[in-house]
Specification:
This protein is α/β, with parallel strands linked by helices. It has 13 helices and 20 strands. Strand 14, helix 8 and strand 15 form a beta-alpha-beta unit. The structure holds zinc ion.
């Protein structure tokens, strides 16, 4: 049973053309936003329960459009087996929800120690109160002898020749919900230390091979995203017609202009994720200034890239969904200082990742007709607050799913 209500607050940041509404409210019917109410309208008589959030702020739910929470994180965080893998996945999703994340874009790459296929993951997430889109990918890890896996062949390592097999590529394209890191143009360090993965960063495909793969995705009417870093790889990706660049660490000013002209999308991962220094606040501000649709994602769980001054971490402990606001904060703050509107800045964690997932018609902003996925906080997420303890309530499709404030009776 969903319950219909009006929720009002000091400030509603809609991340839409409506902008910020002061002292207004949301009218929620059947788990969707029916109306955005102005201050005058919210105080009219309605035959509905009114939840008054007083001095708090309402924003859209956060979206992390590049994660490895379900496949890789369980065994990185817990001493699980195939039997208990999904138990760990539940705990990890609870952690994401507690941090205000109501939708994720999850990469399935194939994992040497677990033999689940995409159907297992789809079945799991159907039972969980979070919106999950999957990107089926192949992956190349930069060991001495590079190792390849894919979401279709799961725990069995495959050869470079198999990575180029049109049958496999078609299957990956068909199964993929959205352009995540469907292909690793550069071999990845994954979560290994530099000594273990000396070939991380190496370009795995020729331009012709890459063009062929992109064409196969497009023939299947699927967009393709790739893991890429460094000038050479980014040039190749743009040449091949890739739709979404994940990471794009080391992107040059010239390339930023080109990405903007070509209307490509960038998923920045300021925590790390490639062989190069991750996206700095200045880099991210430049992407936004160039009008590139830019999302910030965690790529979690991931050890922070060492010794970068915009990350507060002093160790190599794996960071998860709790890091999203912390790693986005320096970029969001810089944009704020540069005079950007809070709605446009918050889009980096809400509307833009919804666009990456292809779900912007359903959520990512607070507008009539969209899912009632929203947060109640004491400050603007990523701009004024970075800690989950300031996220008092999380609603998904109109249901209160995380509660640090309200009477637990709902
Ligand atoms: Zn990744």
């Amino acid at each position: 049973m969903t319950h219909d209500f009006i929720i009002k607050a000091r400030k509603i940041v809609t991340v839409s053309s409506l902008g910020t509404i002061d002292n207004g409210g949301l009218l929620i019917l059947n788990g969707k936003i029916k109306e955005i109410l102005s201050a005058e309208l919210v105080d009219q008589q309605y035959d509905l329960e009114i939840i008054d959030m007083m001095d708090y702020i309402i924003t859209p739910g956060l979206i992390d459009c590049h994660t490895h929470l379900l496949e890789f994180a369980p065994s990185s965080l817990y001493p699980i087996t195939q039997e208990t893998h999904f138990l760990a996945a539940h705990a990890i999703i609870l952690e994401a929800l507690s941090n205000g994340i109501t939708a994720i874009g999850e990469q399935l790459c194939g994992h040497p120690q677990c033999d689940f296929n995409i159907e297992h993951y789809r079945k799991l997430t159907k039972t969980l109160p979070i919106d999950c889109s999957f990107a089926t990918t192949s992956i190349t890890i930069g060991f001495d002898q590079p190792v390849h896996f894919s979401a279709i062949t799961s725990s069995t390592a495959i050869t470079k020749e198999q990575l180029l097999d049109p049958l496999l590529i078609n299957q990956l394209a068909i199964e993929s919900d959205y352009p995540g890191e469907n292909l690793f143009l550069n071999a990845t360090p994954a979560n290994f230390t530099a000594e273990t993965v000396p070939r991380a960063g190496e370009i795995v495909y020729t331009q012709e091979e890459l063009n062929n793969i992109v064409n196969l995705y497009h023939k299947n009417n699927k967009k393709i995203g790739i893991h890429v870093a460094g000038k050479e790889g980014i040039d190749m990706a743009l040449e091949a017609g890739i739709d979404v660049l994940h990471h794009a660490h080391g992107i040059t000013k010239e390339q930023i202009k080109k990405v903007s002209l070509l209307n490509k999308v960038i998923v920045a991962t300021p925590l790390g994720g490639t062989h190069l220094i991750p996206n700095s606040p200045t880099d991210i501000a430049q992407l936004v200034e160039a009008n590139i649709i830019t999302a910030i994602a965690t790529d979690a769980y991931l050890p922070p890239y060492p010794n970068v001054d915009w990350l507060p971490y002093q160790d190599t402990q794996l960071r998860g969904p709790e890091s999203l606001l912390t790693i986005a904060h320096p970029s969001m703050k810089l944009l704020h200082d540069n005079g950007y509107n809070e709605n446009d800045i918050l889009a980096l964690l809400t509307l833009n990742p919804a666009k990456v997932l292809g779900k912007e018609q359903h959520f990512g902003s607070l507008e009539p007709g969209k899912d009632a996925n929203f947060l109640v906080t004491s400050g603007l997420p990523g701009i004024e607050i970075t800690d989950a303890s300031h996220i008092y309530a999380v609603y998904l499709k109109g249901k209160l799913i995380i509660n640090r404030l309200l009477p637990s009776s709902n």
